[in-house]
Amino acid sequence: MSTLKMDLSSYKDLLKQYIETQNEQALYRAEQFSKHSIQQNISPDEIVDVHVQALSELYPDIPENIMNSMNFLLETMISYGLAYQEYQALREKQFELQSEISVAANMQDTLLSTTKPNVEGLDIGVTSHPAKQMSGDYYHFVQDQKGSVGIAVADVIGKGIPAALCMSMIKYSMDSFPDEQMYPSSILEGMNRVVERNVDPSMFITMFYGLYDQASNHFYYSSAGHEPGFYYSAKNDEFSEIEAKGLVLGVDRSATYKQYETLVEQGDMIVLLTDGVTECRAGERFIEREEISDVIHQYKHLPAQEITEQVYQHFERLQDFQLRDDFTMVIIRRDV
Amino acid sequence: MNLNINVDDNEKLKTVTLSGEIDAYTAPKLKETLLPLTQEDQAVVKVDLEGVSYMDSTGLGVFISALKSTKEYDSQLTLVKMNDRVYRLFEITGLTEIIDIETDSTVRGGM
């Protein structure tokens, strides 16, 4: 049927065949004809025009009032034709934008890429999925020569491209901290000043920063208004909230951040997340935090990476595979 | 879900009553209404959140902008009657320390 052209004679034949036999075959061909016309950018008024011509050739005696009504129809279809042209132009523009956004998203991936460190005695897992093409969530690992691992998890309020651009700024500010200042409270205080100076007032960032000292198995951490994570104690087989108080970044220039520390025992897990995990909704119902720790508990025998993936899949299913917000989860477990 | 915004603009006290959900879609509308109020010199603005069933972090952004403008215009902003889920959001982000929040007739936060 692809050879079918918008020519009068084939349309006339088709029309004649249908009027005489009214069979399904002709209707099917009419459908093919219209699909083909769409591909060829033929507007609805042009089709009506062809129809009018075919009709007058097939039935030269057609009553004048019927012919007039057909011309009337032709006029009314003209605006549809124009709207259709506009739609085509918009569609092309949209394709262009989409490809630009995907270039930007790839660039974001490159700019923000971080390598999960291999640390003896620690099992680290991380899963991060954007709700749209570009993510406003961010996580970053830093490893210093003494074997300490720094972990940042952050969330820009606001989604999409502005949030993503903001994250690149955060990443580069983080990279500029010298090794000896990698303590959570000083990092957050530094970041707070950067954000306060450089970011639009309605935009702000929540961030959790933790430093795992491999030599002593101490975990130091501070939070700038970030969704609390979980601490799993293997000895008691129970989860507790990682409580850390602190103001979101970018609101008050003089904010200070309290630093907490805890001794991590063998088998214990530190779970860090963004509010895309806790703000997850199943239908009209919100996910309770206990539900998250229950799911982690269910998979705790798996390696850290697999736990994060299983949790993601669990909540993705609950939301019918339509994430409303970016989802990021990091798990650090002391193995030995 | 929508957000209904009702403003009672009294000379001395401006009361904004909200009901519905504050999210990325409704937050711009709230910002458009709330900011001109807190940007009036020495205005006293009270926001009633009793009817707000859900708020996400974009809603927090609006209240932070409003709070910042109170410092510029010497106006006052108080949030009243929010449910526990909404309050938790202010608490986690540390904003209860810097925004005036009244719940059940007790002042939980302070400037």
Characterization of this structure:
The complex is a heterodimer of chains A (336) and B (111). Chain A is of the alpha+beta class and 336 residues long. Helix content of chain A is 46%, strand content 20%. Chain A folds into 2 domains: 97 residues, KaiA/RbsU domain (Methyltransferase, Methionine Synthase (B12-binding Domains), Chain A, domain 1, Orthogonal Bundle); 219 residues, PPM-type phosphatase domain (Phosphatase 2c, domain 1, 4-Layer Sandwich). Chain A has 9 helices and 12 strands. Chain A is elongated and about 100 Å long. A 6-stranded mixed beta sheet of chain B has the order 1-2-3-4-5-6. Chain B is of the alpha/beta class and 111 residues long. The longest helix of chain B has 17 residues. In chain B, α1 packs parallel to α2. Chain B contains 3 helices and 6 strands; from the N terminus they run ββαβαβαββ. The C terminus of chain B is likely disordered. In chain B, 34% of the residues lie in helices and 36% in strands. Chains A and B meet through loops of A and α2 of B. Chain B: This is Anti-sigma factor antagonist. Chain B: One of its GO terms (molecular function) is anti-sigma factor antagonist activity.
